[in-house]
Structures are given as C-alpha cells and as structure tokens.
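ZP: hey, is the alpha-D-galactopyranose complex queued? I don't see it on the tracker
AM: it wasn't, my bad. submitting now with these inputs:
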Amino acid sequence: MPTKKMTDKEWFHQHLSDRSTKLIPYKSATPKKFNSSTVAWSTLLLLFVTTSISFAQTTVTIPVETEKNAMVLQTDHEGRLGVIYFGSKLANTTEYAGIPSQYNLKSDNAPTYNSCYTPAGTWNLIEPAVQITHADGNMSLDLKYVSSETKKIDANVNLTSVLLKDPLYANEVTLYYKTYYKENVVEQWSVIKNGEKKAIHMQKYASANLYLMGNDFYLTHYNGTWGNEMKPEEDHLSHGIKSIDSKLGTRANLLEPSAFMVSFDKPATEDEGKVLLGQLAWSGNFKLDFEVDNYNNLRVIAGINPYASEYQLAAGQEFTTPGFIYTFSNNGKGEASRNLHHWATKYRLLDGEGSRLTLLNNWEATYFDFDENKLVGLFKGAKKLGVDMFLLDDGWFANKYPRNGDTAGLGDWQENKKKLPHGIGYLVKEATAAGVKFGIWVEPEMVSPKSELYEKHKDWVIREIDRPEKYYRHQLVLDLSNPTVQNFVYGVLDTLFTKNPTLAFIKWDCNAVIYNAHSAYLQKAGLPQSQLYVDYVKGLYKVLDRLRAKYPTVPMMLCSGGGGRVDYGALQFFTEYWPSDNTDPVERIFMQWEYSYFYPAIASCNHITDWSKLPLKFRTDVAMMGKMGYDIVVDKLNEKDLQFSQQAVTNYRSISDLVWHGDLYRLVNPNKNPIASLMFSNTDKSRAIVFNYLVNTRFMPSATPLPVQLKGLDAAKKYTVKEINVYPGTSSSIQPSTVYSGNFLMTVGINPDVHLGRASVLLEVNEVK
Ligand code: GLA
C-alpha cells in the first residue's frame, strides 16, 4: 500500500513552502565567478515578472558546472526536473535561468523528454531511466523535485545532489553529480531508496539520464572480440533507440565496450567540434540507450543492464548505481580525451600520478612449458635487458590436475610441485638475486571443471544444476555473490602476499563469461536469481576493496583474455590494463589509438613479443607509446637486437615521464593515412616526444608525403628535433642541430621521413634555452 496518498496538487502545496526555503542551497564550484543564490533568486525574480506567482515559486534552476561546461536542470510546472541546457558554460551564469525550456509544455500530454531521470508507469511513455514495482504490486512511479545542495569536496571537486520523491509512495531517488572542475569531467550516479514497509523490485535503475540538444548526433562506439579489440564505428543517429550493451556477466568490454563518443551536429575531429566522451564505470552487464526524440534531441540513458537483473530492495534499503563518467568539449576529441586523462590519472586510476615498472613476461616466451630452472634463466634475461621486473604468467599452480594447459587446474592455487619444487618463495629469492623484482599471474574468479576446487565446492560455481555445463576457455566462473567465495578469492591473493611479502606485481586475469547464470548461494539465501549479475560485480569490488585496504600500492594489471575488461569501475583498483592479447604492432597502433581516447597512456600495457615478424625496432617503438614491457626470450636476441633493446629500455626511461604524465596530441590518424603520428608534451611545453609509424604497406609512398604538424608546443619557443631509438648500424635522416620555432613546427611541421626502410620514427623535441 502507498504510505501516504496525496494528489499532485496536495503534494505540491505541502512542498511549496519547503521548497522556497530550499531554493538556494546551491554552492558554486567557483565561488568567485558564480553565485548560485543569484541564479536561484534571479530565476525567481525573472519568473515572478513574466509568469504567475505559483509558477515562479515552483521553478528551481540548478546549474552543474565545470570550468568550461554546464548542464542546467530546471523544474517544470509540475515539479518534475528536466535538463534545459547542456554544453559550454555561459559567461554570465545568472542567465541560465532565462534559458527557454521548449520541452516544458504545460498541457496534460506534455512529453517531457528532457526529464533528468525519467520514471516509468505514470506520465512517461518513452524509455525510462527507472522502473520499479512497489511492495503492493503497483508499477507506477513519479519523481518530483524536493531539494538540492552542492557540497565543496575540495578546491576542484564539488558534489551536487538532487533529491526527487514520489508523491504517492515512500520512494526517493537522489541524483549525484560529482564535478571535477579543471578536468571538465562529471561523474553521475543515483541512489534509490525504498521507504516502503516491504521490499520493492527494481526493473531498471540507470545511473544517468542526459538530454542533449542538437539536430544531428553521431555516435562512435566500439566492437571487438578476442585479439581484435576496440574497432570503432561511427553512426549517424536516426530517430528511435540505438542501444549498446553487454550481457556477458564478466568481461563487459569484450564485444561492445561501454566507452563511446557523441558528436553534436557533425562528426567531431581531433581539434574541432562538440563532442561528449562517456562510459559506465561498471565491470558487468551495462546498457546505454541513445534515443533521438521528436525534437531531434538526444536522450542518453546509461546504467546497469536491466536484462535479467530485477533487483529487490528491502524496506529502508538503498541502492547506489555505478558512476557514469563523461566529459564534453567544444574543441574536438583531442581535448575531450585529455580531460579524461587528466581526471583518470589524478582521481581514478590507482597511482595514476606515479611511475610504472618495466617488465619481462614469460607468457608468449614459454606458454605453459616451463620449470624453475627455465624461469631462473629468464630472470637473467630480464636483468640483461635492463627492465625492472619479471612477471610469471599462467601455469605455475595445481597438482592433482596440473595447470599444463588451459583445460585444468584453475582454482587450485598451490605451486605445482613438479615445475616449481621450491615454490614461489624460491623464485622471488632468485629474481631478487638476479637484480629484478618478481610479479605473478592469477585468475582467482575462475575455476576449471578439472580441479580440486570444483570437486570440493560445486556450490561455489555459477552453473545450472540440472543442465549441461557450458564452458568458455574450458572454465567456469565462481559465484562472487557468495561472501564465502569472496573470502576465498581474497585469500588467494592474501596468501601469496603473506608468504611472499616482496611480491611486486599482480596480473589479474578473467577469461570466461557467465553462462547458465544461476547462484546456489542466492537460492539458499532466498534472494532472487536476477540479482546475480549485479551481485557478482559488487562481490568482485568488495574483494578488490579489501585487497587495496591491506595492499594499497602493489601494482596490478587488469587483464581479461586481452582487453575483455577495461573500465573505470575496475581501474580504481588497478594501475594498468592489458589492451589485447594481439601484440602485432600494426594492430596495436590502431587499438592503442582508440583506447587512448578514454584511458591515459600510463595505463596501457604494451609488450614487445614475437607475435609479428616485423622488425624489433618497430615493435619496440609501438610499445613505447604506453607502458612498455617484453614477452620474449632475451637469450634468443641477436647481438644487434640485444644492443638495440638495452638502449631502448634506457631511452624509454628518459621519455617515460612524457608518456606517463604528458599531454597526448594525436597528429595523423592511421584510419585515414598511411602513417600514424601522435605526441606527448610536458606541461611547460619544453619537451615532447613524437611517435610516427607506417601502417600501410600496400600503398607505400617513398616517404611521408607531407610534414606532420606538431601540437602542444609553445609557438614562441625555440626547439630542436632529434631522432631517438635509432637501430644500431643505421643513421637518422633528421638533422638534430636545426632550430625551429614552435610556431614553425605547429604550422609547417616536420617530416619524420617514414617509409618502408624507416617504418617507425621517434622524435624527441627539446626547447633550446
Ligand atoms: C589470457 C591473457 C594472456 C595470458 C593468458 C594465460 O589470455 O590475456 O595474457 O595471461 O590468459 O592463460
């Protein structure tokens, strides 16, 4: 039963006085520039003059601002809250209140497409952001504005919260907007609270519902699969709904990542056009709906995928949705992506402002075929190369069903006695003696049907008891909705760290999707099976949270059979991610290019492997535009390759600060040109590194046809350009003593002279003082 029955009018009346006192809670993100009370009172004044008193008293304007952008929310004549503006910030912020809201039609059939959180079951007949069934079985929901406030978290970060309530049922939704002022990034989420006396059921519970004004929208989204991640597609959005989603349970990034771009009016380029970059910070099923409405505006609804995910909320309980992260730029994709990089390194990625370890991994060098002695030999190779660490990959564990291939052993996390008779401790000791740190691979969320864990704890496994099992890479997923399983997964890592306190790195893998989504735990607990997809991710985050509480700084790589799991939900616990198992350098140029719109280079693990037969220099140069690592047998390198690699590790050290903490500028797009060029420059524009790669071997011009115009330099400064990472025995065609102005380099440019004989060219740009 409804807790309180009121007509809309009564509800309004009751909240009117309340609202007029709560009209000015907004505190500006930048107090000097903007006074919220001015907006609130001027809204009142303006509307007092132009409309009736009751309308004036019910209109509240809430700007959500960053340094350059604003989204403005405003109540309509029925107390519903809509988005009336999204885009560049106005110089005079008091003028927001005067933005005409053509969507707030005062007729009974007002469509209010611009709702900032569209409820289902009452006035709304389009795609909802929130849909619930009340305790009494009623399926209607209305949300009216009650109050809002903005708290200053620090000089740069504000948190605006807006409380909406159902006039009939005791349910409320609080919308949160966390603004990162300088980075122009907003993280938005909602909290749904059940104030009823019994449980309610939520069918849809989105994180955000944006409303973008324009006439034409272009959506860039991605598709992929194993070894073929991040393939971009750009569509002109027509009327109706275009949805991007994942139903894989784990590995949300595998087929269609949640990262996307929306260009306004025409496809944005690197430096021009209005563009929104966004993604859901959630490592499980998600859904993004892009709906062009009858005003030609775009509604974006982003959240957990409602598919098979009805969620029960007990009396008094709250549900916090994952964050939807977005940034907007008036100056193209380049600026928008730098916004995300600045935000991620400062606020999201673990140790984003720190440094990273270069490493030698044994996966492609040995696969499962290794033993203690072979590994100790590889440590020496790591040292010879000059990298910081050796990373031991899959295959080191399980005894009853040894992990000698990918068909057995997952879940039995004891050292394999045959391969490693002296255990991990011995390897850590030997690595230390060889002068390198030691890291290890785990895949703790998974289980092989051929394992002792499976034999002992079938009830810990996600499976339909009476149906045949379906495997992905011969394995199944553990039920992380179960707290006992969470303890087990935490224990795998905790035991490794406790036994080996100097363990320096973890590669956390996740190779299977969830088939037969059924949880013995939820069944026993009397909870709906439809909570499994959500509770899985919550369980995973609980484990990672606990791990980070005890081991806050150990670097961890987020891996998922390549790039099957890359998102800002997981990356708060990880220092880096593995973009793809495909390490062919040409393929990687394209993938790394696309990932770079959303993630900073410091997080991208780029390894040099023998996957491709392209020259070692080319493979190395491609790896250097992120976090460099190796996956080779050093002893098999010929003399020149070894000499080159040793020099490359040293060169990488000298430029890593630019790659990890500089600003990324994309110069020549490989999707449209025979070469790819991009550069990183430091904050004071005194240094930069420019990467140039040949990507087209079919049509091979004799040299780069035109100079490449640089960006991110100071026009007034003078620079020299020197080629680095030159292969032994070859010479550079770039004249290092020529002095150029920044103006020249950015207007005329410099020809890196890329051709078949020089397929990759790294240029270091230094200010001449
Ligand atoms: C996944 C990872 C690889 C490697 C293997 C080990 O495929 O992406 O890098 O770790 O697992 O089985």
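AM: back. The longest strand covers residues 200-212.
ZP: great, adding it to the tracker
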